[in-house]
Amino acid sequence: MNKPLILSLAAATILATNLSAETMFDRFQAMESEMQKLKEEIASLKKVKAAAPVLAKDEDEDEAEDSSEKEEDEDEESEESDLKEDIKDLQETVMEINKATSGSHLKFGVDYRFAVENMKYTMANGDDAGNDALMTNRFWMNMDWLATKNLSFAGQLAYSKTFGSRSGWQTNVAGMEGFDWITNENPYDDNVRVRSAYFLYRNDTFMESDVPWTFSIGRRPSTNGHLINLRDDDKAASPMGHSINVEFDGLSSKFALENITGVSGMYIKFCAGRGGTNAGAKFFSVNPQTGAVVPNAPYATNKDDLQDIDLAGLIFVPYNDGQYSLSTQYYYANNLIDADIQYPGGVPTMTGMKTVGGMHSFTANVVMNGIGDGINDFLDDTIFFASGALSKTNPYADQGMLGSKAGESKTGYSVWIGTQFPSLLTDDGRWGVEYNKGSAYWRSITYAEDTNIGSKIAARGDAYEAYFTEYLVEDILSMQLRYTYIDYKYTGSNGFFGNDTGTSTLIDNLTLAQGSGVTVDKAQDIRFYIRYKY
């Protein structure tokens, strides 16, 4: 009796080929088909087992026949043992498929992370500040629903808070942590909020042309984008993390151009979003400058409030063969904001927010996913990237941006290089080192970056980082140790876009009157986490 081949075929087909299918719908359909085949094979094997003949020894047979029959019995017992083992392996495979499909096209996933951080700051006047052990909880619940082959929905609920902290329990109430761009990214309160929720339509042809395309709208998966996702041990979201890393609501449409150009991986993606809405409240509005109550029609435009903040741009990937890729991104954001700080009696007082102007941003990066061609296993599994970004302000005629005169534009740049390579201790771990540098007038929109001492990518100065990610239980339970050091050269790295919080001043020249006692000169963060994903 030959041992069934279905184990090797099913395992390879289900756990490898089908999981890399083009769409989630294809994967589910293929897995369910294989699961049904496995069930039928188990039933068939059980029938074979039940029908296997039971050989009895005949007392009249001679000694030679008795010996031959004994050998046949031993062979039968061996085959039966193999059959039982096959059935057990097949049943385990079916259980794994059931786990992956949940018996339907609806799938939930959980992602919980506990982290403890040691944070140290050196202020511009030489004073020290920090936190020896900031402990945080972060929880994501992922949802995916595939209604048809072309239409799907994805969403994520999020919760992020410090240990022992609840909204309203302490006197030092959080300031901007509830801002819409970062509300799920920084430790805040104990509320569960929507981090992303959107539908995705996809088709293999566009207006009868051989151009696969997609369209999506909703709360965008716009944090942990390309390159920054490496150290975060996440799949890359759509934007490039060098210049944008915030939550926002919007839409996108992607067009794959490889079929019509013949260039590997070429595509273009159009994106647009709204990061702030000018609309009155349901019953009445409040003038942010005076506090006066202003009656209004529900959700009508409010002339006393901030203007709509909109962003539009595109991502163009001219080449990506899986090992080498070149990617570019451009966007323009209008009506960007700053804190409106007044000085009654010489005391700085925030009276609200104000709009100051717009900003252009351009980013390009090169990625090598594997260095060389078969030099050795280590280099084959090593990633190297280099990225450059430029920002250019477009202020209103009566406003300055980043410390400029009214109406004066400023240009900034940033460079970022990094590598990620296989662990030197285990087979599945990943280690990495990164460096980035920003100029005096560099400005990114990366407030949601997963770095509690402030976005390292936004730094006007130098930032260094090293991390070690190791897996403890398969791909379910992992740990990471990460060290981040930022040496600021200019003020305003983590401010907004105007002159009140975003002004660029050489830190070495600051006086006490100019805020040297409250300006961070150097920052470092040592973070350890344990993460469960399933």
Per CATH, the superfamily of the largest domain is Porin
CATH level-1 class of the largest domain: Mainly Beta
Order of helix and strand elements from N to C terminus: HHHEEEEEEHEEHEEEEEEHEEEEEE
Strand count, sense and closure of the main sheet? Answer: 16 strands, antiparallel, barrel
What is the terminal-to-terminal distance? 40 Å
The overall strand count is 20
What value does the average pLDDT take?
85
CATH fold type of the largest domain: Porin
Domain count: 2
Quickly describe the structure.
The protein is of the alpha+beta class and 534 residues long.
Written overview of the protein:
The protein has six helices and 20 strands. The chain has helices at residues 6-17, 24-51, 63-101, 228-232, 258-261, 377-380; strands at 106-123, 128-146, 151-162, 193-203, 213-219, 225-226, 237-240, 249-256, 267-276, 284-286, 293-295, 309-320, 324-342, 349-369, 383-395, 411-422, 430-438, 461-473, 477-488, 520-533. With 534 residues, it is of the alpha+beta class. It folds into two domains: 6-100; 105-533, Porin, CATH 2.40.160.10. The longest helix has 39 residues, at 63-101. The two termini are 40 Å apart. 17% of the residues lie in helices and 42% in strands. α1 packs antiparallel against α2 (24-51) and α2 (24-51) runs antiparallel to α3 (63-101). β1 (106-123) and β2 (128-146) form a beta hairpin. It has a 16-stranded antiparallel beta barrel with strand order 1-2-3-4-5-8-9-12-13-14-15-16-17-18-19-20. It has a two-stranded parallel sheet with strand order 6-7. The chain has a two-stranded antiparallel sheet with strand order 10-11.
